[in-house]
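Quiz preparation item.
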């Protein structure tokens, strides 16, 4: 849940003017209800890009293509000036990318594994160093759990905090799917304060949300999806609730 009227206001970032970071060039791909069709967009360092659209309109496919979890049927995806063709998610992570899916226990975390296990797996650490990393993250990210806690025993908010902690500090690109779904208002604001503080003007955030209030509160740019296509690319003074809602329904 996200409510922009609660808590300390979030500062919407200025439009990114940095170098190109992620480029889709004529991309078609399968997936979800509509797949993705004829997608050509370029995202820059320092942008916070919201993906708006009705469920299954292509946002999830876009994020998974960017994270090298899917491969396009047509076209090319460039990340840090290198083609995604033939690359896998592990190489995306090693190149400074992070992806937080909406279903934390289906795609993001591994049920039965502990907090410590996740640091060992994500960072390739031996047990004693993984425990130290888990303890540091528990303190820094205020995770209500212990290094030996199974991740399914954590609340939704604490699972999301753990996912954030697993992303490298110097991540160039953070992709998120419904980042505040299932969280209380305070946890939702904490997530965004952390993300915005970490990225600054060098990192890029791309996220989907079914809540337009969330998208408008933090985005410097919004891509609107309808029936598998990006139908509007809005930024600055163009960011308007009614314009986005209208485009989401094909108007």
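Solution:
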């Amino acid at each position: 849940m996200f409510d922009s009227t609660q808590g300390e206001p979030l500062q919407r970032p200025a439009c990114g003017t940095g170098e190109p970071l992620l480029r889709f060039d004529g991309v078609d791909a399968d997936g979800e209800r509509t797949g993705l069709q004829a997608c050509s967009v370029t995202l820059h360092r320092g942008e916070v890009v919201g993906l708006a659209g009705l469920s299954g309109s292509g946002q999830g496919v876009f994020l998974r293509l960017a994270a090298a979890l899917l491969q396009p049927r047509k076209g090319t995806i460039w990340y840090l000036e290198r083609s995604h063709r033939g690359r896998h998610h592990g190489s995306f992570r090693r190149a400074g990318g992070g992806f937080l899916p909406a279903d934390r226990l289906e795609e993001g975390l591994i049920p039965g594994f502990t907090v410590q296990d996740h640091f060992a797996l994500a960072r390739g650490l031996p047990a004693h160093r993984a425990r130290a990393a888990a303890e540091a993250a528990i303190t820094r990210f205020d995770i209500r759990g212990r290094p030996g806690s199974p991740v399914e025993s954590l609340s939704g908010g604490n699972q999301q905090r753990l996912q954030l902690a697993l992303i490298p500090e110097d991540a160039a690109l953070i992709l998120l799917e419904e980042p505040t779904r299932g969280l209380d208002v305070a946890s939702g604001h904490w997530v965004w304060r952390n993300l915005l503080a970490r990225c600054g003007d060098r990192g890029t955030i791309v996220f989907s949300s079914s809540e337009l209030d969330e998208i408008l509160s933090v985005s410097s740019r919004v891509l609107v999806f309808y029936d598998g296509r990006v139908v509007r690319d809005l930024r600055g003074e163009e960011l308007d609730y009614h314009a986005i809602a209208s485009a989401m329904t094909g108007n």
